[in-house]
Amino acid sequence: MFRLPKFTSSYSVNAKNRMDVVIDGYIPELQVATEHKDFSNILYGRKVKRHKRWWHLTNYTNILQTEEEMGKFFTVEITNDTIKEDVVHVLKDRGLRRLEIKNDRIEVTVSRLSEDQKDIILSGIRRIAKQTKAAIDHITTDIDTRLEKAIDNQVVIPRKAYYIQRQLDATHKEYAGYIKFKELEACFKISRWTFKIPTEEDQACYDDWLLRQKVAEQAAQDKSANKM
């Protein structure tokens, strides 16, 4: 997914590893911020005790999501009838009380977000993206400072430092672009048909990463087809 340069120094590797940690925390934060629209993981991590063992609710459920003009709907299909009350408890605990309980499924209705609610969520998404980008910038600045000191102390020669700096710049650009793409993707989940990309630079970033996803998906399909 990332078009990273070939790393030839500990400075570049250190920068990448630290940025990976930041990105690993970024995606879950965005998922929490947008969970008002995505309920596919609402039962994730919840367990129920049966026959002296703990079982994941997700092992016995399947969530189907749909969206209509009047609001958001999703259905929880249940393959084990004994966990139905546990699923209902989790849904109500998350503030979802418009439930229609049937034999093998629970149909849930979620009211459409108001414009004020959308603005609050979008503001949270942008804040998370801004903080993540700031963390990436800080790592880059820190590595740059260390590299400058290494040059001053003649630990790294200027010619080698030039190539290291290019690797750092390319790595920073990749991660910064990914952060922006995921920010816009999350905003789209909330805004839907009112979504607008603010600048031409953001549009280019979004188009670039969207193309990469399609290329990666096609490559995965081709690889799977070749194995058959």
What is the domain total for the residues?
2
The percentage of residues in β strands lies in: 5-15%
Q: Which shape, going by the Cα principal axes?
A: elongated
What's the order of the H and E elements?
HEEEEHEEHHH
Please give the CATH architecture of the largest domain. Orthogonal Bundle
Number of strands: 6
* Count, helices: 5
Which class do the helix and strand fractions yield?
A: alpha+beta
How would you sum up the major sheet? 4 strands, antiparallel
Computed over alpha carbons, the radius of gyration is: 23 Å
Q: pLDDT average, as an integer? A: 83
Name the poorly predicted regions. none
The termini sit apart by 24 Å
> What name does CATH use for the topology of the largest domain?
Topoisomerase I, Chain A, domain 4
- CATH class descriptor name of the largest domain: Mainly Alpha
The percentage helix is 55-70%
- Name the CATH homologous superfamily of the largest domain: Ribosome-recycling factor
Major beta sheet, strand line-up = 3-4-6-5
